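Entry 14. Two folds queued back to back today. First construct below, sequence then structure tokens.
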Amino acid sequence: HNPLLQQSVPSDLEKLQQALLKEFKMRGLVMADPEVIRLMDTTLQAGPSQMIPVSITKDGGFYKNASVATEEQFASLQTYLRELVQETGIKITEGDVSISPYRLRKQVPCTYCPYKGVCQFDQLIEGNAYRFLKNEPKEKVWEKIAERQGGNEDGNEETRQ
């Protein structure tokens, strides 16, 4: 996320402000709580926010593409990430220090990685390969996290008989 304008400076001040807002717009998840949303963007009415990745419907709900998560989903995500970091740490202490950067469409972390000189990742070397990530719908991602934790999409445990 680089909030510098990569274009010629618009001569119109309003266009410049719009371009800057677009570059500074938050990325990621926002709590699916109308009060939190209002505090984060006090100018938001129905439609898309210029500051956060949320669009509000006329009746006050969220559009399907809004980057929102419930409190339960945030807790579930936090648990999932904590487990993932622990598993990764265990693998490292067991000697697995393999290089396995991801690739999502044309994006690769190696482009910005400060450890390129140490890492020496090269696709031409046997054993060096990208992990190709799928750009999946958010519903599917929440389902996978819930499955891993033995619960439903909201992160709550299912009752098993």
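Second construct, same run, same settings:
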Amino acid sequence: MPRRSNEGGRSAVILNLCPTTLDDAEALVAIRIAAMRESLEALGRFAPRRARERFLAGFTPADCRFVEADGVRAGFVLLRRQTRPWLLDHLYIEPAMQGRGIGAAVLAAIFAEADAQAAPIRVGALRGSASNRFYQRHGFVRTDEAEWDIHYLREPRDGPRS
């Protein structure tokens, strides 16, 4: 079901999260590589083959949704709800679509669901990536660091539940 979001004072985005299948794997890999390229190149770790293999090794279509914004495919999100805390394993927005509030709208949808179920959410971000500021700005708190990643947690918020 489409959602209208007006995150951060930007004009409203009509957000739709669409199911994926195994047949979508290569399209998802392409989005992931495009979205991560700049950050990985800055670290000298851009390796499309490795990025593809790592994604495909853990890809579960049931947990993954294409992100459409105003009817245009803008990226994808892969959220694993089977664990506590939930794992936001992937959230990638195409570089040309970034900066429009789409990622924030996706997080708002995820947060509404997580808060309704009192589920914390964890996420990892590549060290040096702009995604670290993005997740911190949206309420994630740094919990630990690894060689290449910084890990964050967002606790559920109390409040009205619909």
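Quick look at the second one. The longest strand covers residues 72-80. The chain has a mean pLDDT of 89.
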